[in-house]
Amino acid sequence: MRNKPKAEDYRxxxxxxxxxxxxxxxxxxxxxxxxxxxxxxxxxxxxVICATACFLSGAALAMLMPDDARPGxxxxxxxxxxxxxxxxxxxxxxxxxxxxxxSYLDCMFDAMSGFTTTGLTLVGDLDHLSAGLNTWRHVITxxxxxxxxxxxxxxxxxxxxxxxxxxxxxxxxxxLFPSVMHTAKTIWKISAVYFAVGIAALWATGVAIGLPIKAxxxxxxxxxxxxWSTGGFAPMSQNFLYYHSAAYDAVGVAxxxxxxxxxxxxxxxxxxxxxxxxxxxxxxxxxxxxTGLFSVIAAGLTRAGVYPDFVALMRKGFYHAISAHTTTGFxxxxxxxxxxxxGDLALCGMILAxxxxxxxxxxxxxxxxxxxxxxxxxxxxETRRLLLPAGALFPxxxxxxxxxxxxxxxxxxxxxxxxxxxGMWAMATLAGVAVGYPILDAAFEAASVSxxxxxxxxxxxxxxxxxxxxxxxxxxxxGRLEFMAVLAxxxxxxxxxxxxx
Amino acid sequence: MRPLGDGRGRLDGFGEIVLGxxxxxxxxxxxxxxxxxxxxxxxxxxx
Lengths: 501, 47
Description:
The complex is a heterodimer of chains A (501) and B (47). With 501 residues, chain A is mostly helical. The two termini of chain A are 15 Å apart. Chain A is built from 22 helices and 2 strands. Chain A has a two-stranded antiparallel ribbon. The radius of gyration of chain A is 22 Å and the shape is globular. Helix content of chain A is 68%, strand content 2%. In chain A, helix 2 (29-37) runs antiparallel to helix 6 and helix 11 runs parallel beside helix 15. With 47 residues, chain B is mostly helical. Chain B has one domain. Chain B is 68% helix and 0% strand. Chain B is built from 1 helix and no strands. The longest helix of chain B is centred in the middle third of the chain and has 32 residues, at 14-45. Residues 1-7 of chain B have low confidence and may be disordered.
């Protein structure tokens, strides 16, 4: 049993959370700029209030760091879990001040949905949201995709003691370089490269399909941030259906698939190791599972006769299958069409696709291709071991930028996170059923929140019970952090409470 | 824990970046082609 936490432990954790809050304060500059450009002065005040709250609370907490602090694994993990909850509460301030939300809980739901790149929303009258607030929604999705802590590591915390533990706590346990700070900055550089390409491509496509030049720029920027982050937020209530364009759909697909790829893979490919694309365990895993699951979805849709021709099946079936598997959540159908038209087989395929998700160390959620590929390789190895003569030696390896030994500890870790994901999905499904939703609807929405996807079958709305809103917030948070930081926080709280008896 | 990336290259070669993005787009195009093939196959089966 761990010793009772000391005052120093609380101060270290609070200090790190404070620095992350300061980072969020700086991020308020982006929507503030949009609001100033559009002359939305009331919105400007909202963001000044939010930034002030971030700076004041962040600075007060950051000053708590003891002079002789020795941050360890527990501090990094717990600080990450706490920081995500703290920035959720702070980022909700402009939402609440906008008057577009029914309660502060709804605002925090949307903030957590943004940071975790889920994309479910409880906003009212989305079509008349200010440019500033729409920019905020997409900026927090973009920050969440790269990682809230990665942002702070890059610009505020730097290479100080405890930075590696914070980085790992945010479910980005793979590094591109020995230095965590260098890795965090490289993640932002890769996103910056795609930022320039993505906004240019979506802006040009937007103009080509008839959007006014300024609107095309805003939509391009917002959609890029949501696509690259596999977020799923869109500026209009019809989501991607608003654009009614195969070209816009295709450009969006390109950027959200790219966003779902591992940053280590991006780095390898963008620095000349292009053959990695063919050998990487996650690209192979994604290709295989996507082909299989899209076959299931297509079988269900053709059996239901809902999309009778090739173009419709591609633009609806393929689009949503890849949106689900990359955990993006862009939609070109109304939510209830899933329940009323798609049929059980297609929905089961979608649930599995959402659960598997994209790549590790990417902006995507879900179990991740690395774990699916790793577990498959381990299972194949065990089968070969049974079939070959006793004593036969053959390597158990996994290719991720380089060949790596696939040890028992790693396989155990893959299996543990997978089991926790499935368990959390089952619990979230149970929560939905408990408040009265049909089991398939509850299972679909639970897969969407567990995998940080954002596709909705119609369960998520401002009218759903507060119990379910809170449950979904916790599921999005735990799913995004891949449990370890959340379990560390749980253990920390238990050790603090038990000793007080 | 060892770094996952090769840790060698730097993101400063314009040509490498363009070719890298083209490689990733080729992968995405391959997914699109697989999707198209699956669509045709199931439409034929259910025709």
